[in-house]
């Protein structure tokens, strides 16, 4: 038959958490409301103890985890810790993203790295950027960039040409960093592209869907 909670053996000491645990153990035999009244504890507190709300820290951690997973999926599982951390900062500081001057304004893709390719890239950039004032373009010392045709076009566009020093890629650090990220996140994960068109499509997606 039903036992009397007043006479239940092994009643814990009067610590609230122990009392709540005891009530839970005996809840199959006695009414929770009755035990709470007899043991001098609040029924509401008992139920809060049994079904605690997540702490603020735990809720924040859960939210952060979901944001990290969303960014990882959004960027095709290509982003590592540093890139994901950067995206999280941009979400917290959207004005910084809008004010940032660094973005891709022109690119081209070809089977050959020649003057025609860099000229095409230049024309693409000019279409996306209004040339005002004293504009400078910085490149390395590759033969494509030192060619007469390329520099003649820069002169026609009133663009000054700046070069990296020989053997000093750090002079063009932003583009070197971009190329390294592109290879690591877009090229290296794919052992072999099926064909040129597939590679071009992957590059297009990377530049437009991920970096812009």
UniProtKB/TrEMBL annotation:
GO terms for biological process: DNA integration. It comes from the Bacteria. One of its GO terms (molecular function) is nucleic acid binding. This is Integrase catalytic domain-containing protein. Residues 50-212 form the Integrase catalytic domain. The lineage of its organism: Bacteria, Bacillati, Bacillota, Bacilli, Lactobacillales.
